[in-house]
């Protein structure tokens, strides 16, 4: 049994966590804290290490070295910490004979803050048949079941690992709206891992990006929204403008350039760009993550995110 750290207000503390599987270093000296009541985006390319990290937070795995604390305890050893965590992941397996009603009944027994009315309303919204076997649900329905569990559990730490697979755009938007509303009314700490970054950008309070096992970005979403911008126009003027500013990405087409700069989109930058005949625009969170993780290398597809 671990002794809780009474000095921390963090829900999650991760300190120098490394996880090695054979020859693969899935996580490499990762350190961060998560504060209560906020929605965190955990982003990164395929194989970056996101699921490995979430499994540790949920107490399903433990680091090769370093320390994980959830509510002040090692979640791997501490059933009570794990019971305050709801981990919703794609492809969750249930016993063959389990029907939707069995999954709901089990969740109601496990999660102390379970809200049966919310669960009923979500089941009706997503048209989930209570008597159907889970293995007979469509892919989208299985995702809807996961979302229902994640929201109705009202777990103090709720983790969604790509919860939307198979859901159409309307159903995904319903999930985002429900998440935002319910977390505002019943604050809890949420981790949302997704590749649909621009869809969830407005939901996030904080953004963590993992790349090749390393935490490469840990920033307030508000700070990121104004952190970088793109300048486009005649190449000479654009290059002149970019001089002395950190360049995240550069594209040339004939005499034109499109340069992404790691600099705030300030009024001064706007007026200087306009005076030089250049167009200026903020970059999306998705673009920023692509540049941060090197996914804009010519040999890599944007869809790899
Ligand atoms: N149990 C395991 N045994 C061996 N290697 C593993 C294991 N779990 C994860 N890995 C490896 O660790 C790395 C990180 O995998 P992880 O599933 O955490 O990535 P991810 O960021 O969640 O990727 P995706 O976005 O594709 O789901 C990958 O190289 C993966 O192959």
Automatic annotation (TrEMBL):
Q: Keyword set for this entry?
A: ATP-binding, Nucleotide-binding, Transport
**Presence of the UniProt keyword Transport in the record:** yes
Q: Which residues form the ABC transporter domain?
A: 12-237
Where do transmembrane segments lie in this chain? none
Q: Which terms in the Gene Ontology molecular function aspect does this entry carry?
A: ATP binding; ATP hydrolysis activity
Q: Which SMART domains match?
A: AAA
Q: Which InterPro entries match?
A: AAA+_ATPase, ABC_transporter-like_ATP-bd, ABC_Transporter_VariousFunc, P-loop_NTPase
Going by the entry's taxonomy, the superkingdom of the source organism is recorded as Bacteria
Q: What PANTHER family does this protein map onto? A: ABC TRANSPORTER ATP-BINDING PROTEIN ALBC-RELATED (PTHR42939)
Q: What is this protein called?
A: ABC transporter ATP-binding protein
């Amino acid at each position: 049994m671990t002794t809780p750290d009474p000095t921390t207000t963090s829900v999650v503390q991760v300190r120098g966590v490394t996880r090695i599987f054979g020859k693969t270093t899935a996580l490499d000296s990762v350190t961060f804290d998560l504060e209560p009541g906020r929605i965190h985006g955990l982003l990164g390319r395929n194989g970056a290490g996101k699921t490995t990290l979430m499994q540790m937070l949920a107490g399903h795995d433990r680091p090769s070295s370093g320390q994980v604390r959830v509510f002040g305890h090692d979640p791997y050893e501490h059933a009570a910490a794990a019971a305050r965590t709801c981990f919703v992941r794609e492809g969750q397996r249930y016993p063959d004979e389990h029907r939707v009603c069995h999954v709901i009944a089990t969740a109601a027994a496990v999660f102390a803050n379970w809200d049966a009315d919310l669960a009923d309303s979500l089941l009706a919204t997503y048209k989930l048949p209570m008597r159907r076997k889970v293995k007979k649900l469509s892919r989208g329905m299985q995702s809807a079941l996961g979302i229902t569990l994640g929201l109705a559990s009202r777990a103090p730490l709720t983790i969604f690992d790509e919860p939307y697979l198979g859901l159409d755009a309307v159903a995904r938007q319903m999930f985002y709206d429900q998440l935002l509303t319910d977390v505002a009314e019943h604050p809890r700490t949420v981790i949302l891992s997704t590749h649909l970054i621009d869809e969830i950008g407005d939901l996030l309070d904080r953004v963590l990006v993992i790349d090749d096992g390393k935490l490469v970005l840990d920033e307030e979403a508000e700070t990121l929204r104004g952190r970088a911008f793109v300048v486009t126009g005649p190449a000479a003027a654009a290059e002149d403008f970019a001089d002395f500013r950190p360049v995240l990405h550069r594209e040339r087409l004939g005499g034109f350039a499109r340069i992404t700069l790691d600099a705030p989109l300030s009024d001064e930058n706007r007026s200087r760009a306009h005076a030089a005949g250049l167009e200026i625009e903020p970059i999306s969170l998705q673009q920023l993550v692509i540049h941060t993780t090197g996914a804009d290398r010519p040999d890599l597809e944007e869809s790899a995110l």
